[in-house]
Protein 1
Amino acid sequence: MTDASATAVRELPLAPLHRALGARMGPFAGYSMPIQYPAGLKAEHLHTRCEAGLFDVSHMGQLRLRARDGTLATLARAIERALPLDCEGWPSGQQRYSVLMNEDGGVEDDLMLVLLTHRVDSLELRMVVNASNRRADLARLRTLCPELIIEEIDAALLALQGPAAERVLAALDPQAAVPVFMQACELRLAGALCFATRSGYTGEDGYEISVPLDAAERVAQRLLADPAVRPIGLGARDTLRLEAGLPLHGNELSPSVSPIEAGLAFAVARSRRTGGAKAGGFPGAARVLRELVEGAPRQLIGLVSDDGVPVRAHASVVDAQDRQVGEVTSGTISPTLGKAVMLALVNRDALTTGAMFRAVVRDKRPLLERVALPFVPKRYRR
């Protein structure tokens, strides 16, 4: 790959539709993405909370993993070597969250996976990875799992999010009402066979839908024809996920941050922990298992401020003696709450009862209050 092709900004399959809808486009993870539409970020954010927003997330990597010998045993063994999962008893069509780590226990990427075993002729694991990591993830997984065939799925990915999402999607295929949170199904949408999971990145009920490229615009237009649905850009996607307390790779997650520091201990199966039947055996296990027992040196926490000062990523968090004890990883003025909200990695020894924190924002020191996550309650259909 030449330097020019490596740095070229790619177009989404639905780029003409976004421009026709008035989107302001901007680069993200190597793609030209719709940042916001004429209504603006706040209106898009609040509309998603009240009705339904349609997000084009086709920049995300979609992968299909199959065992070379076609067996579930080989597929499970390989995945358990690469990820802190336990494949035993994993129901077909059930989605799981996991993390791909380096040998030092840092998070190289976070992933969504669905195991499909209900049809012998399609025994496979489907995986969605972050856009900026798709090439590195593919290379890493192929190295860790040589007994697997790992292919990219060339399809669009649409996310329909919000309280009206089920009604809207079920109007196109009633099967959409069947799955609950973190379950997958096939849907016939506008004549196209699509693969959907009841999941998303907003804290709202909703779906992520893998759509054949030749049907992507047709499906998007059918969804947008419902008065409850509006197109939503990358800006509101970020504020929505932050209100829901969801980590973003490159902010809360990085090759130096462990899943325990990031509050993702749930992603490490109990059987893979110290004393479990399948303890260890995945990249970064030494650090992760130690931090599960001893605690991590830092902790991802939620902070709010009523001082009216936006606090962005990389702002220092200081204690009452003005000593730096952490750093903000994501921050915004919450459209739902009307106050500054932020996620921050803070030293564990600073998290004492009644500890007072401030952020360093140029010459200001807004007061911060620690709060439980999420900032806005999640409304998944369980």
Protein 2
Amino acid sequence: MTRTLAMTGATGFVGGATLRQAVEAGWHVRALTRRPQPERPGVTWIAGALDDTDSLARMVAGSDALLHIAGVVNVPTRAAFDAGNRIATEHVVAAARGAGVARFVHVSSLAAREPGLSDYGWSKEGAEGVVRASGLAWTIVRPPAVFGPGDTEMRDLFRMARRGVVTAPRGRLSVILVDELARLLIALAADRDASIGAIYEPDDGRPDGWTHGDFARAIGRAMGRNRVATLTIPPALLKAGGRLDPLLRRDRAKLTPDRARYIAHPDWVVAKGACPPVEVWRPAIDTERALADTARWYREQGWL
């Protein structure tokens, strides 16, 4: 019998990879979308939005599990973060409870560990609180930096590496390939035992993560450069850039004050012991190989 999976965020970077793997794994997906989408085998597109309770009810109807991937990462105000993350999660949880969809997998962020650092982290921690209090059979996943084909966030690092010089903040980070994260989310949707009530922080398996410089040099190797110079950006300069970019690019700004505070934090490494149990998931693709595949995809698409 075909299992049915409800999904928010299916048209995004992480959601797109997860949607593809869910269909390949035999799920029928009921996916929320704001804009019309082409027909796709194994997918029922549900027109609506996270603040539209009727469309959420249609999405969850008859579903065995729900993956809540959608959220906001770069909006101008604290209220907008709250609406796009915490309040939106309240609506999705209410829909799941109303339809009797007990299995609920929520995609959060490592930023939720530091809610006082940024409005983004504050809103993601608030969304986690909603899930923990939901009464559902929930699992929370806090991905670190996600990369892979189709990603627009790390593309600038590949562009800089191609030129031989990469600017980077101080500190360390963990990373995960988008297809690896998607594989975890699909495994959790089917899990009815080991992961209930757990908060996981998955990564590529590299002990203690990467320094930003080491990761930049790995991207350089993926781009065919054996030597890449890294220029470290002090936190004060990052925060100054966060104030300047919105003045210059307004709504198109990538570096806001909120995001600058987040990026300047020195420790975005997953916590020891927070990885999913090996019987559910373990990383399987080497990051250096994944970076090379990502660089190849960028070239093929003309994104560099």
